[in-house]
Amino acid sequence: MTLTFTPSDWSTLQTVAVTGVNDDDVDGNVAYTIVTRRECLDHMIVLNERHLHLILTGYFDYYHNSRPHLSLDRNSPTPRRIEPPSEGQCVAIPQVGGSHHRYTRAA
């Protein structure tokens, strides 16, 4: 797959189909629709297919493990534990090339 952008169409939405390999989890066929344009791709210049893969891999990790979701009471799909102030100062861990951050406590 190749995405080609020119000066006349760089801001045109291009659809990318991503197919995952079977991970043998017994979860049936689960379809996910994740809007990455506004949260991720609008802030990046994609150089080539390999670069797009690296960006999306980082974003999907952020989306599932760090990003707060309102429907999950501001937790992520992979639940995060509550870190009280007694565990140290709040520090930002850059993710997705620094365009997003995960916040944690450092002793």
Describe the structure in your own words.
The protein has a two-stranded antiparallel ribbon. The radius of gyration is 17 Å and the shape is globular. 16% of the residues lie in helices and 13% in strands. It is of the alpha+beta class and 107 residues long. The protein has one domain (1-82).
Structural topology:
Elements: H1 49-65, E1 89-95, E2 100-106
Antiparallel strand pairs: 1-2
Strand line-up in the sheet with most strands = 1-2
Overall geometric form:
globular
User: Roughly what percent helix?
Assistant: 10-25%
Strand % is 5-15%
Q: Would you tell me the structural class of the helices and strands?
A: alpha+beta
Low-confidence stretches: none
Largest sheet: 2 strands, antiparallel
What is the rounded distance between the termini? 45 Å
The overall pLDDT, averaged over residues, is 79
What's the count of strands?
Answer: 2
Sequence of secondary-structure elements: HEE
| Rg estimate, integer Å | 17 Å
Domains (count): 1
Tally of contiguous helical segments: 1
Quick summary of this structure?
With 107 residues, this protein is α+β, with helices and mostly antiparallel strands.
Main attributes of the structure:
alpha+beta, about 15% helix
